Amino acid sequence: MHDATPLVRTIADILPATDAERAAAVDGPRTTGKWLTARVAQDAASVISTVFEEATRRDPDKARTWVALVDGANHQIERINAEAATRNITVHILIDIVHVMEYLWKAAWCFHAEGDPAA
């Protein structure tokens, strides 16, 4: 969890193709108030509840835009939606592209032998 002021950036800012684009690239937004948690001894529901408690403490009036970044696991998304519904909060869910690509590769191997360039 963190705060960041939105910043408009171009594709060249994020993925510069040339040295000139790299030199002119605008840095991404700076985060403040970062709060991290991880648990291996608790289930996802407990951890997500704890995150919502902290977010509610930080934004009791629900005035901010809430965004959750997940790895795409359905149980995480279901728990976030359940917590948001219980607390009457709108949460925008983003799925990490690295995990999406992993799921796509797993799907490709269902149709092709692993290592097959056709995949």
Structural write-up:
The chain is α+β, with helices and mostly antiparallel strands. The protein has one domain. The chain contains five helices and four strands. It has a two-stranded antiparallel sheet with strand order 1-2. Helix 4 links the parallel strand 3 and strand 4. The longest helix is centred in the middle third of the chain and has 15 residues. The protein starts with a strand and ends in an 8-residue tail after the last helix. The model has no long low-confidence stretch (mean pLDDT 90).
Give the gist of this structure.
The protein is built from five helices and four strands. With 119 residues, the protein is of the alpha+beta class.
Low-confidence parts: none
Q: Biggest sheet, strands in spatial order?
A: 1-2
Instruction: Report the principal-axis shape.
Output: flat
Radius of gyration: 19 Å
Through-space gap between termini: 37 Å
The total of beta strands comes to 4
Structural class: alpha+beta
What is the helix content? 40-55%
Give the count of structural domains: 1
Q: Strand content of the residues, in percent?
A: 5-15%
Helix-strand topology string: EHHEHEHEH
- What is the mean pLDDT? 90
DSSP helical segment count: 5
Largest sheet composition: 2 strands, antiparallel
